[in-house]
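## tool: complex_structure
## caller: assistant
## args:
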Amino acid sequence: MPGQRGVSVRRSAAWRIGLAAACLLTLAAARKKNTDDSSSAPAAAPAVTALPPVSAPQSPAAAPSDSDRGWSKPALGVAAVLALAALAAAGAGDLRDAGLAAVVAATAAYWGFGGWRYHKVSGDEQGYAPVQPIAFSHALHAGKLQISCLYCHGGAARSDFSDVPSPGICMNCHVAVHSVAGSNAPSPEIAKLLKVYETHASSAPAQIPWIRVHHLPDYVHFSHRVHVNNNISCQECHGPVQTMTRVRQYSSLSMGWCINCHRLTPETAPKHWKKVGGPLDCAACHY
Amino acid sequence: MTEDERRQYEEQDKVDGLRRRDFLQILGGSFAALAASGCGLSAPREKIVPYADKTDVTPGLARWYASTCGSCAAACGVLVKSRDGRPIKMEGNPDHPLSRGGLCARGQASVLDLYDSSRLKGPLSGESATTWEQLDAAVVKALDEARRRGKSVRVLSQTIPSPSLDAAAAEFCARHGARRVIYDSASAAAILDAHRLTHGHAVLPRYRFDQAKAVVSFCADFLGAWISPVEFTKAWSSRRRPEKGQGMAWLAQFESRMSVTGANADLRAPLRPSQELAAVVELGRLVAKRLGRGEFAPSAGSLPEPVSRALESAAGRLAAARGEALVVSGSPDPSVQAAVNGVNELLGAYGKTLDIRHPSRQRQGLPDAMSGLIAEMERGEVGALVVFGANPAYDHPESARVRAALKKVGAVVVLSQRRDETAQLAHYTATAPHALESWGDAAPVEGTYSLVQPLIAPLFDSRSEIESLLAWSGRKTSAHDFVRELWRAKVHPRAKGARNFDEFWNEILSKGAVEVAPVEGPSGAFNASALARLRPARKPASDGRFEFDAYDSVSMFDGRQANNPWLQELPDPVTKVTWGNVALFSPEDAKSLGLENGRMVRLGSGDDAVDLPACVQPGQAAGTVAAAFGYGRPSAGPIAANLPTRKLLPIDFDPPGGADVYPLSRESAVAVAVLAATSPLARTQQYDSQTVPFTGQERPLILETTLSKFNDYEVKEEPGATLWPKHEYPGHKWGMAVNLTSCTGCAACVVACQAENNVPVVGKAEVRKSREMHWIRIDRYYGGDDAESNPTVGFQPMLCQQCDDAPCETVCPVLATSHSSEGLNMQVYNRCVGTRYCANNCPYKVRRFNWFDYAHDDLLQNLALNPDVTVRQRGIMEKCTFCSQRIYAAKFTADSEGRPLKDGEIAPACAQSCPADAIVFGDTNDPDSRVSRAIRENKSYRVLEEIGTGPAVRYGVKVRNVSEEKA
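## result:
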């Protein structure tokens, strides 16, 4: 009996280590997938940086990629393996282990099917892509229609903060455009905009409560205008927004990520930047 | 706030404290549960809600609007910074012809008054809320009722130099057969009265300190709180620039308490209020003798020897500066003021340093007007009284009589921002807006006009005084239209240069102020016979009583901003006491009474007695006691009542907010009784001398010289040894020059910094533990041969010195403070873990530690926070950053426009609003920058240089214009 007990403890420990490893693997897989298409060194992303800063590149007939759907195949793989393990454990009569494995498998599956995009996993929120109140597609507007980023986010060139367009700006076009291409039926998403805009002259106009995607802590100051006016294109930090049907946080926005660009020299920096070598003083951002 | 309410607050606090412990336990449990379930935390769902129809607001871009400060009748020009539609900072407007870019502490703090949630939320009928329609109908009915009964209608206000408001009040008076009564809590009635005696018409001259080479002041605190302190400081400091090679104006101050002006005087003599007339007459006699004129006036009494000696010297200076000399007095005694007029006439001051043809309108209250009204109300002859811009139930010496008399008035209508002492007695209260919420104008002196424009829609249901008065006159119009029409008719035709009115209006809206062709008033021939019958209004105190001197303090003035936490925590420039007033005694009297700092004393007798903590004040005239107005308001709000602004902050169990000395100010002498109780002073400076305690070694932090030696003065740069390699500053090297000669210690910079940098207010209990958070403080040192009875005073603004070899940097275990490539000691809040080693190692004691989370529970007040500066949390260290946010904003602008930074483009908050232009900031790597020039020209030194810190702040040596025989 004591020997058996010892075996049980060892097996249980192995199980737990295995389950924990599976959890970590799931997270890592989801995050790895995210960074796969976001190599952070701007010099390594010539396809994007070569563009003039304000116009979006054309991405003809871009099929929704995995990252747009938010799937993570490795995480799904882990979920599948664990599900099998749970079945096996159940078959062997070890219900406690089976239960544990099933819970972790379900978590991994949730994660694999895109759950990672809604949750804060570690310090940064890379990959975060919340569902917005209006299903506005940057892939359509910036990608297909090639509307300049600054047309809607003009504050980025003038102010430290980039603004979110007011319904008034949307209505410059949508006063005429009520349906999506190839359809005569009014789009329900555009209808939401029209409804909000109708109230704009009233004393308490309706609002579109967009969900914030990019969030910097309050103790960091980032100035959009100084970067935009240095000819740094929006995509260098925000990624291929023109391909995103739903916007996600592309870069980690961590301090190390910022500093990597500030440290570039004229030899290593993209040639279209006007000025190279941002300040490295703490007080440049923290005050 | 009653004692009961106070007790309730404290009980609530204890309950909340218990709840907090429970909450922490539950929280701990929840974390365990979370960890067990392995659940992730959801990302913070923040929202970005754009403006529905965006007009001229770009998120993150500050916009500046020119307006006029509404804090007092001085009506200084301001520039108001608006971020995302919220006004967050007020600064001086350099285009304003009077204030010329300066703004005092009270003006700068007034932005916080806007976000005061204890303001009135809407109109009141009695104590209950009502609508404007109902209120208007009821008020008009009450006014008509008063006239039908044959009773009088009166309009009472303090001086508000607004032509539009005057016109609206005149329209109201015409419609209701009313008469207007003006009084001033900080009265200059004696000056107006004296000019009626000597020049034939009651007028307040415009004082031209910029034209004066020698000034003698009797109790007039013109650099502190007298009439128009910013204008006077700007003008005066422009004549105190020895480095410009044009000499330096000279100032003598005769006063009973140590005022800001006295602290800056080249010659100062303590003088009891009852001796003032004798002193002014003696000065006149001496000046007349020197100028070879006939006898000035019969002597009005004998004076102590030091005063006579000082008067001799003052007379010599004045006579030598004839035509450029000025005598001023803050005395409430018309005889003293008439004698002052006589001396000014002798000196040829009228038309030069004293202008009565283009007079000031900053004080219009005449002495008899208010007492006449009180008598009228007491007789029951007033049917309706409309009060605006005034709080006579508190800020008048006869406030008790006013309160009783108001009950005999048929209808009391009060236009007020808050339910103050007068509004509590009102039948109808019309909620008035803050100056940042309304249209208006100001004409503080003849020929100078400025506009008040709203920065934000009224936060509460308020209506401008102009609109209310007009509505009750049967005219529905907006304040904007009324002001505009008045300017079209009255101001535009007088403006220089032909422009159409719309262009003119828009130009003034963007500039703030305009000078138009002045209307010359009569000059009036001087009537010397007025000097023959001077009788002092004040008798010397007898039988052991003390002469009482109540004064307007720099921070609290007449108490109208008593609910402003920035001003409550602003140390008085001289006494350095916060959160309440104190009774000031001379060291000699304190010794004989057995007083020490903080001992409670009872001043006065009978009903008018007040209890105040004593404070021993060097330089106070013996036999006098002084206390500041503006404190002890029963109905100003929770801050004035010293209630906790934040749950779980330590509260003070003291009698809240000092004591009201208005009733006492009627008496010229008070009895002093020493009580057993004590109330430790909440004071920010405990040590007044530049001598090292224990060793007695002299260690001057303020270096001084005299005017005659200034040119030959040499600064010895003797930096101490350092262990560290020299820093390289390849680009900019930020530095600051502080001119100790022009700094008056007025404390405008302290509030400027507080507003700009989200510096928290800590409360009285924490100040007592020396935990105040001000990033810039003004150290005040006493010195001279007579450091007890009449010291010389030096002020030194002390902020982070941004040392090259900073002692703070070397001891930080987590590198939260480190050196920038531009010479700043950076403090990184998110890195700091709160060891406080840096504060211990700082020889200048400028680092501040957050012992608590000081942010307000009052969410409305948080709207005044500057979004460009981190709000610091509990447990971390903070300090002056040289306004890094302004440095980087200027750099970003320059970068975005593809040009280098210009010199003078960056002004930290303290430098921007300094009324004395004492602070210059810039790049010391550039030898031609303003700061480099100022450092050279002002013979600047570094404080505690010998310990090898290498500060980036340099202080221009303090120059005193003292007579050679004394120097």
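## assistant note: Chain A is about 45% helix and 0% strand. The mean pLDDT of chain A is 77. Handing back to user.
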